[in-house]
Automatic annotation (TrEMBL):
Catalytic activity: (R)-malate + NAD(+) = pyruvate + CO2 + NADH
Cited InterPro entries: ICDH/IPMDH, IsoCit/isopropylmalate_DH_CS, IsoPropMal-DH-like_dom, TTC_DH
Documented EC number(s): 1.1.1.83
Domain Isopropylmalate dehydrogenase-like stretches: 5-353
Record carries keyword Manganese: yes
GO molecular function terms attached to this record: tartrate dehydrogenase activity
Protein family: Belongs to the isocitrate and isopropylmalate dehydrogenases family.
Record keyword Metal-binding present: yes
Cofactor or coenzyme needed: Mg(2+); Mn(2+)
Keywords: Manganese, Metal-binding, NAD, Oxidoreductase
Pfam family, one: Iso_dh
Record-given protein name: D-malate dehydrogenase (decarboxylating)
Amino acid sequence: PDANTIAVIPGDGIGKEVVPEGVRVLDAAAGAFGFELAYREFDFASADYWTRTGTMLPGDWFETLRGFDAIFFGAVGWPQVVPDHVSLWGSLLQFRRGFDQYVNLRPTRLMPGVASPLAGRSPGEVDFWVVRENTEGEYSSIGGRIFEGTERETVMQETVMTRVGVDRVLRFAFELAARRPRRKLTSATKSNGISVTMPYWDERVAAMAQQYPQVDVDQFHIDILTANFVLHPDWFDVVVASNLFGDILSDLGPACAGTIGIAPSANINPERRFPSLFEPVHGSAPDIAGRGIANPIGQIWCAAMMLDHLGHDAAGAAVLAAIEQVLARGPEQAPLTPDLGGSGTTAELGAEIAEAVAGAGAAAG
Ligand code: NAD
Ligand code: IPM
Ligand code: MN
């Protein structure tokens, strides 16, 4: 079979440090499991590109990227050079919308060997997926500023929910829940206070639930839901949320599971009309960038999700198993990064996981 084509976009800050470790592990997986990946790296979607060109993306980015099988993305944002809303609306958010990546799938899993800030929790008790709506909702470009500079200065930004947009992400979440052993789905809402869009979200959840009688459905308002992530993480299996609520929950979940440094995300176009994009949940981390201490596992777990998406299931499973195996050895026995209590570097941890993947391939024959 032909090689899968991967567009590699490191972006800014620690994106440039963790992406090479993701590629290192992808190479190990391809070698061990006998398939080919053809990469092409792009320097756009970065502050450097902005400084050089005054834009975040070239005019033909859509045509340039659309033929790739997947996009392997680091992080974008360098607020000292370009304001965050400019860099993000100029790049990542364009990709999500342009390529109709309407599902943002983000696992939270407490891994063996990782210390959770939640006292007394062990791995099986924190293991759920956040399914985040990724193309509409609170992230809308509809709104504006009027009477600027006067005392009547007013700003507005509309939340947009469409039936197609809400139903398609709900369907994905229900399908996922139906395949999981617990078959449980929790909806994040705020229909007590946000009185138009959120009651609509609840209505569509109730309608979809009728089609999935085997799925056990509940819902919480976002405020108490965040509390329950901390108090009762074992309650959750699949959590479906609007764009903003899903954004918040997908940092909170991984923090409860020890560190946001290991959390991956898949921005998926389920119909495969366009490439899906795989990026860690975290950002460019300017506070630690350039020191070689960023945790590469979020990016490496993205590699596992991308391999699954490309149909290399055994390789994807081997990458996840390698992550688990290296984490389980703990900071004394493995070169874990400082966020995991160790003193390993980004490259040492990446190399350790790549080696475990190569070994798994050899064992699998
Ligand atoms: P951040 O995720 O970059 O960092 C938050 C905190 O977590 C920092 O203390 C950082 O050091 C730590 N951290 C993050 N990733 C880590 C890793 N892999 N290993 C160890 N520690 C890690 O969030 P922020 O500070 O709010 O944002 C910084 C920039 O990144 C901003 O420009 C923001 O807009 C952007 N951002 C981009 C994305 C993305 O590209 N998907 C996501 C979030 C934030
Ligand atoms: C994420 C990020 C982005 C988001 C930002 C950087 C626009 O926080 O991928 O979670 O809000 O979606
Ligand atoms: Mn986020």
